[in-house]
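quick one before i forget lol
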Amino acid sequence: MSSRGVRLIVFPLILFAAVTALTVGLAKAHLAQPSAPKAAPGGVKLGDPYRGQTVFQQTCATCHGSEGQGGGGGPQIAGTGITVAAAKAQIESPRGVMPAGLVSGQQEADVLAYLAGILPQS
């Protein structure tokens, strides 16, 4: 086989192997998946932020907006300086027009984990 024939076969194989190795390595590294904090400042126990986002969308977003930006009667919570501990206190003992008992137990821990990602860290 001529050197040109070898280049036409070997170079694409090496390139394919390199791209495949890079793709598999990046997939295993989970670079796009943020890590979930286990506790917020103040010792608030957190759950799963992905489940929390789903619960937030189903239970809280109607009033607080899809990402906590406010809107449908509830105040903005994202980027306002509210702590996770203050959000927990509001969920457990609502003041104002927020209804009681919207989330509790694991759902509350999950929503707090989601909020920990959209509230500023203090």
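fyi The first strand starts at residue 39 and ends at 40.
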